[in-house]
């Protein structure tokens, strides 16, 4: 997709504290609303982005104040693209147990990754496991509604 198709972008390094994550989350959600994304899509991006930020802050950087979380987000009329990278050692997302398996129903681990994969069109990790790229394509019905408004 050509760069000029992006109508908004932000690139920040935020401290490893949840308050910093909330501020950038609000910016992204405000931009989606301004571009008339539907409530269902905004809800999904909200959940996925919040989970990715919390994972990077708490699990990746272990809330270490000397480490930063690097966030890059771009939004167009029909797509949102997010990259979140922490300064931690990383992990293997394939090794995270499926939280819907009977033996894992009582285990809290893995639910955030499952939500991210459920609500985003694409979720990929780098080889080290300290960077996630997520993408959401606007629902076709929402694209049509926005054009008619």
Describe this structure in words.
There is one protein chain. With 149 residues, this protein is α+β, with helices and mostly antiparallel strands. Helix content is 38%, strand content 23%. The protein has four helices and five strands; from the N terminus they run βααββαββα. The protein has helices at 18-34, 39-60, 111-119, 140-148; strands at 8-15, 68-75, 79-85, 122-125, 131-137. The protein has a five-stranded antiparallel β-sheet with strand order 1-2-3-5-4, covered by helices on one side. The mean pLDDT is 89.
What's this entry about, in short?
This protein has helices at 18-34, 39-60, 111-119, 140-148, and strands spanning 8-15, 68-75, 79-85, 122-125, 131-137.
């Amino acid at each position: 997709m050509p760069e000029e198709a992006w109508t908004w972008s932000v690139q920040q390094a935020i401290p490893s504290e949840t308050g910093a994550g909330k501020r950038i989350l609000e910016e992204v959600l405000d931009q989606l609303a301004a571009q008339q994304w539907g409530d269902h899509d905004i809800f999904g991006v909200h959940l996925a982005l919040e989970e990715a930020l919390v994972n990077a802050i708490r699990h990746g950087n272990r809330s270490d104040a000397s480490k930063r979380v690097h966030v890059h987000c771009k939004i167009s009329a029909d797509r949102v693209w997010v990259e979140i990278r922490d300064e931690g050692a990383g992990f293997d997302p394939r090794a995270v147990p499926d939280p819907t398996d009977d033996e894992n129903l009582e285990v809290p681990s893995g639910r955030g990754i499952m939500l991210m994969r459920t609500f985003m069109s694409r979720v990929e990790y780098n080889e080290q496991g300290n960077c996630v790229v997520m993408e959401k394509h606007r629902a076709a019905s929402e694209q049509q509604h926005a054009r008619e408004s």
